[in-house]
Write a structure and sequence with these properties.
This protein is an alpha/beta fold and about 725 residues long. It folds into four domains: about 10-255, NAD(P)-binding Rossmann-like Domain (Rossmann fold, 3-Layer(aba) Sandwich); about 305-465, Succinyl-CoA synthetase domains (Rossmann fold), CATH 3.40.50; about 515-590, ATP-grasp fold, A domain (Dna Ligase, domain 1, 2-Layer Sandwich), CATH 3.30.1490; about 595-710, D-amino Acid Aminotransferase, Chain A, domain 1. It has a seven-stranded mixed sheet, with helices on both faces. Helix 2 (about 35-45) links the parallel strand 1 and strand 2 (about 50-55).
Length: about 725
């Protein structure tokens, strides 16, 4: 999601696009149904403050403006050119713009990279041409740009909708969807400070726009619709910084294309592209919406609500059914149902009839009118145990929903706590609301999207308060680790032998169980005796991937006879699976049964780099998928969030009288693995499964692990 120019472009490259004093529309047309006419018409009717120059060699005037055959014929300087000509005419037009000294281009024309084949080469030549003149370009294959600043009033898109001015900066990678976005924003009365359709992102792209909007005083929320990512590393730096100042909301299409890229490890099988995107956005403090509708719900809340101090929610309602649905949804999203103070409940009891509930949800029953809502909402917002309020109104025939909305809005104005409404009213109510109550709190027809929006407000508030964290660095044996890596690469890469895996982990201070390797089956008994019974025996071989699936593991062996029988059975099992030729020996380990099984893994994504994984481990990790990912390196804050976000956390903390595991040690192991994969980029995959996490850290250790080294080029 970045141009090749990265972050350090400064504002000048984009000022010429968004703050021009003169604009030429090259390809302007008198045909009212054409893009060339629509863009010129939008510039005129929206009130562009600068000079306009239609360019068309076959017309004398368009929209009452004198027309010029070429941009070279314009007598005044031109800051920005909007290019709406066929693809084969674009190079000549760009040359004329460069000769004229135009600073910025918005290339609406299609037929470039998006069509593949020759279009890819055509776009590369266009980019080289633009940069040779020192110009900046948005597009090609885009719908244009918008700046609501009244001193500029630039509406240079072909959308028939004029979005209201506001404080949301929006980037859309899709031009067609951009038109729909402007329509929806108009209907929801969500105003834009900036809008940009970037199309193919040949030059200026998402990261450039993020940097431009970061400190813009007129932008309160930044929203992005993405179809692809460019440079996630630049995005990470920008997003982490921006998210501490203003909300960043992203819709990334293509969720279903996620899938296993490398089934040779549990981590690889679980780390699909969409998982990587979620991990990156979470780490940066970016909110990911699952749909355009959800994005606008979230944007509406951020533009109309203050941030809550916590996640304790109170539901105020006149109907029990919707309140139950709202409660279920809030609990599903992890919101805490606020426990009202005795004083608040006492005051509510004085106002409400005996049939009402003064607990949370506060059910005022169907007779509640606008005055009831006014007084009860005031009391609930004053309660120190409440951080956010959801107001639900199901209109009886005798009560006007607009009166209730007015009361709710008036109370909300006096408080610094967010209020979200659920009004199950007729469409006419919503159509009139924008005109009658333009500053109303965000309203929804059903409780579930309202609950999701409350969750987003609380999540962002928490993210904003989250410490930045530090990346700890440990003293490790780099020399021994480098020897193992060099030997592996000399052998052509691939999976390390178990002894090398354990040596590498020990070099990084990661505790492992005692083990030894035997080349011959007859040596396993003596090795087991030296370790002490009981032991586990496993087949050793780089081509034997999931040992338990092919019967290559034997556990809890208590004598040399047991070991001998197990080794024989493992050989027979491998032969039946056609893997006997992969057998390179046997690993004998001490048996470790204490603690909880967790998995720590790493898979390298070609775009996002190494992804660290943590979750509950064991054979069924791919079934339960109770895992979480983060890009490396991980800070101390990231590592703790990883551990505390798995559903199995109660098992790790201890349940039913069991002692919890030493979580600080688990976090430390995550950091040590993160440091290892940062030090050695040739590590392509890593699975530590299981790591037995115990209450007593002296018993916590790696039981099994696999590490694959990238083959040298």
């Amino acid at each position: 999601m970045s141009s090749q120019n990265g972050e350090g472009n400064g504002s000048k490259r984009l000022d010429v696009i968004f703050k021009p004093s003169s604009v030429a529309v090259i390809g302007a047309s008198r045909g009212t149904g054409s893009i060339g006419y629509q863009i010129l018409d939008n510039l005129v009717t929206f009130g562009f403050s600068g000079k306009l120059f239609p360019i068309n060699p076959f017309a004398e005037a368009i929209h009452s403006f004198k027309c010029y055959p070429s941009v070279l014929d314009v007598p005044d300087p031109v800051d920005l050119a909007i290019i709406v000509v066929p693809k084969d005419k674009v190079p000549g037009v760009v040359d004329e713009c460069g000769e004229k000294g135009v600073g910025g281009l918005v290339v609406i024309s299609a037929g470039f990279k998006e069509v593949g084949g020759e279009g890819i080469e055509r776009e590369q030549r266009l980019l080289e041409q633009v940069r040779s003149y020192g110009m900046s370009m948005i597009g090609p294959n885009c719908m244009g740009v918008f700046n609501a600043d009244p001193e500029i009033a630039l509406h240079a898109t072909f959308s028939p909708t004029h979005p209201p001015p506001g404080d949301v900066a929006f980037m859309s990678q899709s031009g067609a969807l951009g038109v729909a976005i402007l329509n929806v924003a108009r209907e929801m009365n969500i105003g834009f400070s900036f809008f940009a359709s970037v199309g193919n992102k040949a030059d200026i792209a998402g990261n450039d726009l993020l940097a431009y909007w970061e400190d813009d005083p007129g932008t309160r929320v930044i929203a992005l619709y993405l179809e692809s990512f460019g440079d996630p590393r630049v995005f990470t730096v920008l997003a982490r910084r921006i998210a501490r100042k203003k909300p960043l909301v992203v819709v990334k299409s293509g969720r279903s294309e996620a899938g296993a890229r490398a089934a040779s490890s549990h981590t690889g099988a679980l780390a699909g592209r969409d998982v990587a995107i979620d991990a990156l956005l979470n780490q940066c403090g970016v909110l990911r919406a699952r749909s355009i509708e959800e994005m606008f719900n979230t944007i509406q809340a951020f533009t109309r609500c203050p941030l809550p101090d916590g996640n304790r929610i109170c539901i105020l309602t006149n109907a029990g059914g919707p309140a139950i649905l709202a409660t279920d949804a809030c609990e599903e999203y992890g919101l805490e149902m606020a426990r009202l103070t005795d004083e608040t409940s006492k005051q509510l009891s004085k106002i409400l009839p005996a049939e009402a509930s003064v607990l949370n949800p506060v059910d005022m029953i169907a007779s509640a009118n606008h005055q009831t809502y006014r007084v009860c909402l005031e009391l609930v917002l004053q309660d120190p145990e409440v951080d956010i309020v959801m107001v639900i109104f199901v209109p009886p025939t005798m009560i006007n929903p607009t009166d209730v909305a007015t009361a709710v809005t008036e109370v909300t104005r006096r408080h610094k706590k967010p209020v979200v409404g659920v009004f199950m009213a007729l469409e006419e109510f919503y159509e009139q609301l924008q005109e009658k109550l333009p500053d109303h709190p965000p309203l929804f027809f059903f409780p579930e999207p309202a609950a999701r929006t409350c969750f987003d407000l609380c999540k962002y508030s928490q993210l904003r308060r989250r410490p930045e964290g530090v990346v700890p660095v440990f003293d490790v044996d780099r020399e021994r680790s480098a020897e193992i890596m060099a030997a592996a690469k000399k052998d052509g890469g691939g999976f390390l032998m178990m002894g090398d895996v354990f040596d590498l982990l020990k070099a990084y201070g990661i505790p492992t169980c005692r083990m030894g390797q035997a080349r011959e089956a007859g040596d396993t008994g003596a090795l087991a005796r030296s370790l002490g019974f009981p032991v586990a025996v496993k087949a050793a071989g780089r081509g034997i991937v999931h040992k338990s699936d092919v019967g290559a593991v034997a556990l809890d062996l208590r004598s040399e006879d047991d070991v001998s029988a197990a080794v024989k059975q493992i050989g027979e099992n491998l032969e039946s699976h056609g893997l006997l030729s992969e057998l390179e020996g046997f690993v004998v380990q001490e048996m470790t049964t204490r603690g909880q099984e967790v998995i720590i893994g790493m898979s390298s994504d070609p775009l996002f780099g190494p992804l660290l994984m943590f979750g509950l481990g064991g054979r069924y990790v791919e079934v339960f998928k109770d895992v979480v990912f983060r890009p490396v390196p991980v800070t101390d804050v990231d590592a703790w969030e990883m551990v505390e976000s798995v559903k199995g956390l109660p098992l790790l903390k201890g349940v039913r009288g069991e002692q919890g595991v030493d979580l600080p040690l688990v976090v430390e192991v995550l950091h040590r693995v993160s440091q290892m994969v940062m030090d050695f980029q040739e590590i392509a995959e890593l699975d530590i499964n299981p790591f037995m996490a115990c209450h007593d850290p002296s018993y916590s250790r790696v039981v099994d692990a696999r590490i694959r080294i990238e083959a040298p080029e």
